[in-house]
Design brief:
homodimer; mainly alpha; Arc Repressor Mutant, subunit A; 10 helices; DNA-binding
DNA sequence: CTCGTTACTGACCCATGAGTCAGCAACTAC
DNA sequence: GTAGTTGCTGACTCATGGGTCAGTAACGAG
C-alpha cells in the first residue's frame, strides 16, 4: 500500500549521480549548474549527494574520470593492435571516432575543461596525462610509422598531430556555442583528413 | 595640500573601466570576476561603474565592442578595398592577423565565450552578430572571389571558411589549457593556410 | 514483530556578490 | 568667496546557492 518514499541503494548512487551531473553540466556548464539540480536529476536529495561527493568539484572530477578515459583508451588499443596501413587507419577507425566525438560526452568534457580548467590546474594535469598526451602521442607514432614505411612523405604536416585533432575540437566548441547556426561537423572533419592525407601521399609540395 | 580624493573625468571613465574589465576577465573569466574588482582596477567605486554600465553584461559587451570588433572590421575593410589576389591576401594580411590573435585580447574573449556562453545566450547572439558572422562572411566572399576569377578551383574547401579559422581558435584554446606544453601556434596556422592554398590552386584533388 | 543501524531527507545557515541610493565633494559660474 | 550642478562614493539590501545536520524511515538481524 504505502510505497516507501525511497530505496537504499548505496551501490548505485555514485554512478547515477555522476551521470546526472554529466547531463546537468552538458546543459548549463559547470558554474551555472546547481548542485540541487544534479540531485534532483538523480532522484536524490542534496544531502545525500554530499555524502558521496565532498564538494561540487569532486563531482566534476568524477564526471571527467568516468566518461573520457575509456573512450580514448579504446582508440589507442586499436592503433596498437591493428596492423593496417596508416592511411587505412586514418580513413577508417580514426575518422569514425572523430565523427562520433561531437555527439558524445567527450564534447561536454572538452567544454568543461576549457571553462573551468584554469581554476583547477590539477584536473588539467590529470586530463593532459591521461587523455591528451596519449592521444597526440598515438597519432604521432602512427604518422612516424607511415613515414618510415615510405607510405607518407616527411614534412611539417607529419610532425603536427594537432592538425588531425583540430577539426574535432573546433567542431565541438563551435556547435556548443552556436547551435543555432551549426557547422557541418562531418564535412569539416572529412575535408581536413582528406587534405592531410593528400599532402602526406605527396600530391603536393 | 589636501589632494582631492578623486577627479571628475567623465570622458575617460568608460574606456578605463572597459580596459580594467578586460584585464579582470582575462584573469578570472566572466562569472568569477567581481564587479568590485573591475572597479578597483579602474581606480573607481562600484557605484560609478554602474553609472556607466547598466549591468555586468553590458560591461562584457563593451569589452567585445572595444577590443574585438575594430580588429575584425579592419580586416574586412582590407578585403573590400584592396585589389590584391586572394592568395596574396591570405598569405599577407590574413596570416598576419591570424598569427597575432593568440596573444591579443581576442583570445580572452574567445575563451570567455566558450566557457560561459551557454549561460548567456544573448551574449552569444551578440558575439555571433557582431563578430563571427562578419568574419566567416568575409572569408566566404574572398574565396568566392578567388573562384570567380579562376584563381582558385571550386571545391568543398572553397565552401568551408571555417577551415581557415580553425587553427586560430584551436591554438587559443589549447594554449589556454595546456600552457605548460604549449603548441607552436604560428607553425600550425601557417601549415594549415599552406595546405588550403595548395589545394585551392589545384595542386591536388 | 522488535530494535539497532545507517541510507537518506530537506529545512536551515551563511558567505558571496550583483545592483542601489542617499549623501558628499569636485568643479563651475558668478 | 558662495551657490548650483553633477561626478562620484561606499555602506547598504537582497537573491542566490554551496554546504550542514538533526531527524526520519528503510532495511536487516534476531
Amino acid at each position: 500500500m504505502n510505497q516507501p518514499r525511497y530505496q537504499r541503494r548505496k551501490e548505485d548512487r555514485p554512478e547515477e549521480i555522476t551521470a546526472a551531473a554529466l547531463e546537468a553540466f552538458a546543459k548549463n556548464g559547470y558554474a551555472a549548474t546547481r548542485v540541487d539540480e544534479v540531485a534532483k536529476r538523480a532522484g536524490v536529495s542534496k544531502g545525500l549527494l554530499y555524502l558521496y561527493f565532498k564538494t561540487k568539484e569532486e563531482l566534476f572530477k568524477s564526471v571527467v574520470r568516468s566518461f573520457v578515459m575509456p573512450r580514448i583508451d579504446t582508440l589507442i588499443k586499436i592503433i596498437e593492435t591493428s596492423d593496417m596501413s596508416s592511411e587505412k587507419f586514418l580513413r577508417g577507425p580514426f575518422l569514425d571516432f572523430a565523427r562520433q566525438v561531437p555527439g558524445s560526452p567527450i564534447s561536454v568534457i572538452v567544454r568543461l575543461m576549457v571553462a573551468e580548467g584554469p581554476k583547477h590546474p590539477d584536473l588539467v594535469q590529470f586530463y593532459w596525462d591521461n587523455v591528451v598526451s596519449h592521444g597526440l602521442g598515438a597519432i604521432n607514432e602512427l604518422l612516424w610509422h607511415g613515414v618510415q614505411s615510405g607510405e607518407f612523405q616527411r614534412s611539417t604536416v607529419s610532425e603536427q598531430p594537432a592538425l588531425f585533432v583540430m577539426p574535432v575540437i573546433f567542431s565541438v566548441i563551435f556547435n556548443l556555442l552556436f547551435s543555432k547556426q551549426p557547422i557541418d561537423t562531418d564535412r569539416l572533419i572529412e575535408t581536413q583528413i582528406d587534405l592531410l592525407i593528400s599532402h602526406l601521399k605527396g600530391h603536393t609540395t
